[in-house]
Amino acid sequence: MASNSGPKSLNRSQNNGSSNNSNNSDKQVIHTTSSSKSSSGHPPVRSKPNSAKRSVTPNSRAANPNNNDDSEPARVRVAVRVRPRDAEDLNSEADYADCVELQPELKRLKLRKNNWNADSYKFDEVFTDSASQRRVYEVVAKPVVESVINGYNGTIMAYGQTGTGKTYTMGRLGKHDPSERGIMVRSLEDILANTSPTLDTVEISYLQLYLESIQDLLAPEKNNIPIAEDPKTGEVSLPGAAVVKIRDLDQFLQLVQIGESNRHAANTKMNTESSRSHAILMVYIQRSSLGKADNEVSPQDRDSKRSMGNNMNTLHKSKLLIVDLAGSERIAKSGAEGHMLEETKFINLSLTSLGKCINALAENSSHIPTRDSKLTRMLRDSFGGSARTSLIITIGPSARHHAETSSTIMFGQRAMKVVNMLKLKEEFDYESLCRKLENQVDYLIAENERQQKIREDDKEEMEKKLIEYRNSFAEVESSLDARSQLFENENNRLVSENQRLLDELKLQKDRNDVLHDQVARLEMSLKQSKQNQLEGSSYQKMLADTTQMYEKKIAELMEQIEDEHSQIERAEDQLAKVKQMLSDHQKSTERQEKQEIDDLKDKLQKMCQVYDKTVNEFQSLKTENVELLSEKATSSEELQKLTQKLSAEEKQRKHMEDEFYKLKKMVAENVNGNEDKSSTMKEINGKVHPGFGNSLSFSRSFQQREAIPRVSKIFEEVGLEKTIAMLKSQDLEVQIHAVKAVANLAAEDSNQEKIVEEGGLDALLMLLGSSENTTIHRVASGAIANLAMSEKNQGLIMSKGGAHLLASIASKTDDPQTLRMVAGAIANLCGNQKLHASLKEDGAIKALLGMGGSGNSDVIAQIARGMANFAKCESRGTVQGYRKGRSLLFEDGALPWLIDNCATNSSSTRRHIELALCHLAQNDENAPDFVSSGSVKELMRISSESTREDIRNLAKKTLKLNPMFQSEMEC
């Protein structure tokens, strides 16, 4: 689908109308719009002539050796955009100036090394932190988009450090605020506005380069897509990648949103939503130009076109690459570890390969190492090829990132030296013409077949009608013969019949005369019968009256009989009821007697069982008495042994106390020879003030920082094993001094492993469980909190029941300092996703939330940090797919606690609470809890009012991607 694909491409020249004299319609003419200056205002720079050693891009080679390579040179245009200072920059660098000074009117910027020295750099455009998305698009991307619409290849790319706004500049969707749209959406909007949906085709592919593997963002199941190169043209293509035809901008926004949801991102110290892959949007445009004016082509081409037919279609095929590179980052600053560390290595490796290619092109090197990385292979046409390329580099103003900013600026300076050779390839639309001719041939063949079939059908029909007419004519002839014969026979029959009727008529006349006589006689007999009938009717009436009277009497008798029957039935029913009552009474009497007998039997049986039980208990008591006597003798022997063991331990304890007093004397002598013993011990055993940030550590005063190395040296001389052994002393003062010493040593990372190996962790956990002293609880909890900073020690603490002991201490004390230590230790454990279930089962999460009732700001700060650590781990597990289900924090009421404490005055505490809410909201299983508790409103507040821009962006993204949150916001 690349713009220069197809063996029959035609490059049209706009500078002159001359062409070769060949009549071949497939000839190639170079198109160029070269002038005295390039579009950027700089004089055109010709690249070094191709040599046998120089590896050039295939698109820059002429397809036909007879053609002159007059393609237009176009330098890579580079713009720089500065990100506004965020809240972290303002808080950490309030007393320092920015390292970047902008001069947008001169298109320059100055990079300060210090307050006296600065380097000046010139770019094609310099954008301040207030530049709008529209202006950035019109200056950087619109010229490239217009070239792509006209048939050239183009590339728009963003390069810069993590967190400087590359994705915001390139991929911002701006669904609710069109002014926020980035280059990607605005480019497609212009392309769709300048193309015809009926004649032109716009298609896209959306890919990401992750861990040096090309993945399809629109079809996530397509992974590790290969890169193929055309052996003839050298074109780079990606077979297997999904290509989707775009109808309108809404469809494109939906596809990009799907792709962004499949893109790898993670939370780092530099950015809460850091892209972990390079995203590449490929836009393929195919434009059809029908019947161009004759004056635009040479006479030979005009004759060729006329010979091939009028209105010959030509195709312009072009490709636009919009590249959002992952940010370069330093591991020490991003805090990447584990899988994220591998991601960072691959990102930096591919960006290094790209930098090498840019350096080689800028220096006109004989070898361009494009095959060192898949990224450079995919961008082969963008740098040193035939595409028009615009690069925008993003930087931050903070002096903390001076090295990264300098590296980014130098990358842009070297890219400005790269010159591409623009080419337009135009080809006849033979496929369209072929399809048209094939359609016409198919139509003519079908019409011919249809006419032939109609003629055959008419012929068959005429033959059938002729046969029918012949058959009907023969039938008519035979029927006429039969009918004539029938008429003759009928005529003969009618003649004979007429004669017969005449004979019958005569006979009938004679009969009529006889009948007249009989009628007269019958009339006389009828008169006589009428008179007899009148006499019979009076007799019948009298008989009917008599019958009716008898029927009435019979009915009365039947009614009397029915009444007597009903009385008999009622009497029988009453008799049956009396019999039933008598039978029921007899049965109830029998049951009652039987029940009384059964009760007596049961009571007798129970008495027998009680007797047997009493006898058995008596026998068992006798046996137990004998066993107790034997156990008493055994216990006496064990008691004597224990007494001897305690005596030996008492001697050992006194020996350890002597060692400890010697240790105190040595400390006093090393700290200050002129100070007394009590002041020295006060310095060593002073109060520990842990301050918790992203990880728990002890912040000491100057005296404590000076004393700890001396204490460490002294304890090295005495021996860590003896120091830990003092934790088991029976003397409370010895225990307190020893636990303080171990806590101070645990603050140093180098001592933690030795403490655990010598049994220090077991001794500290034993003190937490056995001691009732508040000071021991506080200092031991602080020591465990320091040890819990190591992932290895976290697992040991959990396996030895440390979380349960910490939860128990939290429930027993009201001392704010002790609660702060305990909360800090649990908060560190919350940063290990493998321990979440165990923390929940041991009651550590419930205890952590319960400590908020103390009202102490330091304790609340540690609780908020623990919630943020827990929620962050859960969110990471959900995104990476190895964790499912509702958050474990919700069962202990973490969500109401977070909402109640959102208005705290402490900025760090509020930041941890906001992060915890945003990470919890990313899990779709938690959405019903957020909706039911009204927490969606708090997310909306965070998206607009949070002091941290990264937290605001995270909240906005969470609200947009969740349908339940969207419906709740609309309500």
Automatic annotation (TrEMBL):
Cellular component terms per the entry's GO annotation: mitotic spindle; spindle microtubule
Amino-acid biosynthesis found in the keyword field: no
GO BP term (any one): microtubule-based movement
GO terms for MF: ATP binding; microtubule binding; plus-end-directed microtubule motor activity
Matching PROSITE patterns: ARM_REPEAT, KINESIN_MOTOR_1, KINESIN_MOTOR_2
Transmembrane intervals: none
Lineage: superkingdom: Eukaryota
Compositionally biased intervals (Basic and acidic residues): 293-306
Family: Belongs to the TRAFAC class myosin-kinesin ATPase superfamily. Kinesin family. Ungrouped subfamily.
This protein's name: Kinesin-like protein
Organism whose genome encodes this protein: Papaver nudicaule (Iceland poppy)
